[in-house]
Amino acid sequence: MNLLEFKNELSVRSKNGISFLLAATIIWTIITVIFLQPFGIKEKNVFMLYSTGLMFPLAIIISKVIKADWKANDNPLSKLGLYLNLTQIMYFPIIFWAFVKSPTNMVLFFAVITGAHFFPYGWLYNTKVYFIIAPIISIIILVIGWAITIENLWFIPFTMVIFLLVLNLLLYIDYKKKCK
Q1: In this predicted structure, what is the pLDDT of residue 83?
Q2: Are 98 and 105 in contact (CB under 8 A)?
Q3: Which residues cross the membrane (predicted)?
């Protein structure tokens, strides 16, 4: 098999990583609810960080439900997908800095990092969807962050939910095309 065939095979077997994106959609929905609560910003940020602990268990459960094989051991690119997902953790020092120095911007930084980290999946799954949506998420979230007040921070995670739903839909369409 050549590289393109490995990428397309991984794309179909893992369903373009949709199980992780569906888990992220659930988590960003939880974060939206957290930011609608009457807690202080530090408490909201702590709960937001705690909610991210659900990511991997939810992704595993969703993978089983939708029959997505994201750990295809016979495909040399499958581990790369996991490594790309783990790279987001490398940006957590920025999140921790925001927690201490700029707590009202923490959700903004987290959303921009989340959106931007999708970009390399365009190469991995051989789909333009990630290449297009990743920078759009980051730029739109940044613009929203400039425009809103602390009382409306919930709009940032809510926007992420909308983007994730769109991303899931477009990736599912791409997956179906590759199955034909």
Answers
A1: 85
A2: yes
A3: 20-41, 47-68, 80-100, 106-124, 129-148, 154-173
Q: Are 92 and 41 in contact (CB under 8 A)?
A: no
Whether 45 and 99 have beta carbons less than 8 Å apart is answered as yes
In the Cβ-directed half-sphere of 3, how many Cα atoms lie within 13 Å?
Answer: 3
Among residues 121, 81, 90, 105, which one has the least CA distance to residue 156? 105
Q: Which pLDDT belongs to residue 75?
A: 85
The pLDDT assigned to 178 comes to 95
Nearest residue to 11 (alpha-carbon basis) of 117, 163, 129: 129
Half-sphere exposure of 170 (CA within 13 A, CB side): 16
Residues of the chain with pLDDT under 70: 72
The pair of structure tokens assigned to 176 is 């179906």
**Which two structure tokens, joined as six digits, stand for 37?**
């609560």
Note the pLDDT of residue 43: 98
Q: Are 21 and 29 in contact (CB under 8 A)?
A: no
